[in-house]
Design brief:
This protein is mainly β. It has 2 domains: 103 residues, no CATH class; 345 residues, 6 Propeller (Neuraminidase). 2% of the residues lie in helices and 40% in strands. The strands form 11 sheets. An 8-stranded mixed sheet has the order 28-29-30-31-8-34-33-32. Strands 7-2-41-38-39 form a 5-stranded antiparallel sheet, with no helix packed on it. Strands 9, 10, 11, 12 and 13 form a 5-stranded antiparallel sheet that branches.
């Protein structure tokens, strides 16, 4: 009996069925080989079914790097240094994960008490592009001493690069209003001009006598709430306004770069094209991903609270643009609240690393409440597609829980933080493919099919069965560690499909 070439477990299915004819071919749809066998007048027909590109593209490894953070909100690296991951904790600590030692350093990089009601706390971190020389970095937070959304500059300690100098704190900007809801707080330096971008949520919700979310900060150009700011910052001194900011000559606060946002929690720049992306958390109906092209001159209005994503809110606030206003910028993508998606978008990154070449150029994002991940291909074009990413954990029953942030290092590797569990993961290549061979196999007198399965170093449950290629279940009690024999009763009607996990 011939044996077809090995097939990756993520590239095919094994199908079995019964046939009372005296002979039948076993076929392999790649045209590599065909075989035939007759056994006890019961013939098993094998067919390899190609998996759709969705399944192949969407599977990535999810490697836990470390556990033990307390309500982490953001992860990043310093320019030119991938040996350390800096993780913010909501209560006001910045912890260092030493990648070479695989552990969290016992002493925090920085610890500043925070006002932490609801969404308030320490949420943003950006290192100056010349951090290696200046030792300057910036934090967005709500310090306990003055619980307003605040941008603060710090310097690293002179004698220890793993410790910041808390006495170096300089408040750069304090934003009016309560921090408890819709804080935003992402900060990042533009890769071209070195200007600092800061996202600010609309802050609606806890103002006495005001009906959430009707305050309308996002469309009010006299407040910094509900805006994306653009500032020039230096190692010392106050911020200044870039000369090409859209409202520098009047008509609005000069710090404003774009407006009409609700809670832009996480943003990023595409390291290749320098386009700017952010996820804007919705109200009670839709979540959205927005994109600003690298050549934008600013002044863009993303539509909240006239629109929530592509949905007309019906709020009709005085001074707000009306639905259908052509000046409003629609989202790149939005999705409806529900179990299939979630209800709190977490903006991610355009993938530019080398570990996952199938994702190159695609925008990765997720949802806090559902723990699901997606990638966006051909963004902003008629062929734009959204594909769910299936993370493969060492514990196959696991999934992501309460994603608070993605992170990216200097060579484009992507990380995922879990808020409640305090875990830090790296997205990696899928576990090494195992091969399913069509043999050796045998058929018993009672019509049971037996096949020797491949060895698996992980010892994980490896085989799943389906009758319709849609619903897959693990074969009960079947795990593989040394290439055991699997058997199944195939005398029933219809087809049975098998795949390796």
């Amino acid at each position: 009996m011939g044996a077809p070439e090995p097939l990756s477990c993520r590239s095919g299915y094994l199908k079995t069925g019964t046939d009372q004819m005296t002979s039948r071919q076993f076929t392999f749809n790649r045209g590599a080989s065909t075989i035939e066998i007759t056994a006890n007048s019961i013939i098993i027909a094998f067919t390899i079914w190609a998996v759709s590109p969705f399944a192949c593209v969407a599977e990535v490894g999810a490697t836990r790097l470390v556990s033990g953070f307390v309500q982490p909100t953001y992860v990043t690296v310093a320019p030119g240094d991938d040996s350390r991951l800096f993780v913010i904790e909501k209560a006001g600590s910045i912890r260092i994960f030493d990648r070479s030692r695989g552990k969290i350093l016992s002493e925090p990089f920085l610890s500043i008490p925070q006002f932490t009601v609801s969404e308030a706390g320490m949420v943003g971190l950006a290192f100056a592009p010349d951090f290696w020389r200046s030792g300057v970095f910036y934090v967005t937070h709500t310090p306990a001493s003055s619980p307003m959304p605040t941008l603060t500059r710090f310097h690293v300690s002179a004698g220890d690069t793993n410790r910041a100098d808390p006495t170096s704190a300089e408040m750069i900007l304090s934003i009016e209003g309560t921090p408890a809801l819709h804080m935003g707080g992402w900060i990042g330096f533009h890769p071209d001009n070195g200007l600092l971008y800061l996202t600010v949520g609309d802050g609606d919700g806890l103002y006495p006598g005001l009906d959430y979310p009707h305050e309308g900060h996002a469309q009010n150009l006299k407040t910094l709430r509900g805006k994306i700011l653009r500032l020039q910052v230096e190692a010392t001194g106050p911020y200044t306004i870039p000369a090409d900011n859209p409202f520098i000559a009047g008509g609005g606060r000069p710090e404003i770069w774009s407006y009409g946002v609700r809670n832009p929690w996480r943003g990023s720049f595409d390291r290749l094209t320098h386009d700017y992306f952010f996820g804007d958390v919705g109200n009670n109906a839709r979540e959205e991903i927005d994109m600003e092209p690298a050549g934008s001159s600013g002044g863009r209005n993303y539509g909240w609270s006239t629109y929530e994503g592509t949905l007309d809110t019906g709020f009709n606030l005085p001074g707000n643009p009306t639905p259908g206003d052509p000046s409003l910028i629609p989202p790149l993508f939005d999705y409806i609240h529900g179990s299939n998606w979630g209800s709190a978008v977490v903006g991610g990154y355009v993938y530019r690393g080398s570990d996952l070449p199938e994702l190159t150029g695609q925008y990765l994002f997720g949802d806090y409440t559902s723990g699901r991940l997606w990638c966006m291909k051909d963004r902003g074009t008629p062929s734009q597609t959204i594909t769910e990413i299936r993370p493969l954990f060492s514990d196959r029953s696991r999934r992501f829980h309460h994603i608070s942030s993605f992170g990216e290092d200097n060579i484009g590797r992507v990380f995922v933080l879990e808020f409640n569990d305090g875990d830090l993961f790296q997205l990696t290549p899928p576990p090494s493919a195992v091969s399913l061979q069509l043999g050796p196999f045998s058929i018993t007198q009672d019509g049971r099919f037996h096949v020797q399965t491949p060895q698996s170093e992980s010892g994980l449950t490896l085989l799943q069965v389906s009758s319709d290629l849609k619903a897959w279940v693990d074969v009960p009690g079947y795990t593989t560690g040394s290439g055991e024999e699997f058997s199944d009763n195939i005398t029933r009607e219809g087809a049975r499909f098998y795949r390796l996990r």
